[in-house]
Design goal:
165 residues, mainly alpha
Length: 165
């Protein structure tokens, strides 16, 4: 007895369906890979932006401290005070992002960055305290040791390393 569907019709039809299913599966897998890469890129951009914002706040704090040291006028401390207020929020966002999407190496880098920033802020605060308690000459002696410049160089190097990673 003859089959109602000859092999010449069924075989190409079955091959067409199999190829179509293969294309659909390949497209879905490719889409998921692309979506994952887009999420990773967005995360990297957010982390880099927050990292550079945090660095800018440290620079603002240093700028305010220097302005005050040069003039002795309290209004020059405004960038310093504003940076201190905004720093914790920016750093918290960076930490949250790393907890969600960061690697162990990135978390270690942020730990080093946080330590360096803490060191820099302590140096700025010590300089201002010396200025208030012992006068500008004592504060300038501390500034002239170069500890602040070395710390900022380390902070910038850490930011560059983290941005590259």
């Amino acid at each position: 007895m003859k089959s109602p569907f000859p092999l010449k019709i069924v075989l190409p039809l079955a091959l067409g369906i199999a190829v179509s299913l293969g294309v659909v599966v390949y497209a879905e897998v490719s889409y998921r890979i692309l979506e994952s890469a887009n999420r990773q890129m967005a995360t990297a951009v957010i982390m880099q932006s927050t990292l550079h914002e945090t660095l800018a706040l440290v620079i603002d704090a240093e700028t305010g401290q220097r302005g005050y040291m040069l003039t002795g006028k309290d209004e020059y401390l405004e960038p310093y005070n504003q940076a201190l207020l905004r720093f914790e929020e920016a750093f918290s966002r960076l930490r949250e992002q790393l907890v969600l999407d960061g690697t162990t190496a990135q978390r270690e880098s942020v730990g080093r960055f946080n330590s360096l920033v803490g060191k820099k802020l302590a140096e700025l605060e010590a300089t201002l305290a010396l200025h208030h308690s012992e006068g500008p000459e004592a504060a300038m002696k501390l500034m002239n040791t170069g500890i602040g410049r070395r710390t900022m160089d380390q902070i910038r190097a850490e930011v560059n390393d983290m941005a590259r990673a």
